[in-house]
Design a protein that fits this description.
This protein has 140 residues and is α+β, with helices and mostly antiparallel strands. The chain has a single domain, classed as Roll (Thiol Ester Dehydrase, Chain A), CATH 3.10.129. Strands 1, 2, 3, 4, 5 and 6 form a six-stranded antiparallel β-sheet that branches. A hairpin with a 4-residue loop joins strand 3 and strand 4. The protein is elongated.
Length: 140
């Protein structure tokens, strides 16, 4: 597993529910933002993925809510890829307030879809390694 990449986000008031907590669906948005920021930092663009004929897909996401987040809270959202031998990979993410309090932990299973054949590709880490200008971020 690579060292976690991190991006800072400030919880906005319109993202909260009637209790003033960050709405559950927004945790997924923060995780997605961190994943695309990670890819960008590694030198991978959406255009490069499409040009290669592949697109990332989310197959499963599990969220463990630990502590509430409120409007104005600043959080760091980490992102670390774990590679296996098959067609899928795991992404471990943590959302942590700047005081060190873990607010949520997310585990996702993803893959790369062949956009022409509509099938998952084997060796997704090979595609990421080839496209990245900094494959070290992936631990590759």
């Amino acid at each position: 597993m690579s060292e976690p990449f991190s991006v800072r986000v400030t919880v906005r008031g319109y993202e909260t529910d009637v209790q003033g907590h960050l709405n559950q669906s927004v945790y997924i948005n923060y995780a997605e933002h961190a994943r695309w920021s990670f890819l960008q930092a590694a030198g991978i663009t959406q255009a490069a993925l499409i040009g290669k004929g592949v697109g990332p897909v989310a197959l499963e996401t599990t969220i463990r809510y630990r502590r509430e987040l409120l409007a104005g809270d600043e959080v760091d959202v980490t992102c670390a890829f774990e590679w296996g031998d098959g067609k899928t990979f795991r992404i471990q993410q943590t959302i942590t307030r700047t005081d060190g309090t873990v607010a949520a932990e997310l585990t996702s299973v993803g893959g790369l879809l062949d956009l022409e054949n509509r099938r998952m590709i084997t060796n997704p880490h090979g595609y990421f390694k080839e496209l990245a200008t900094d494959p070290g971020l992936f631990g590759l």
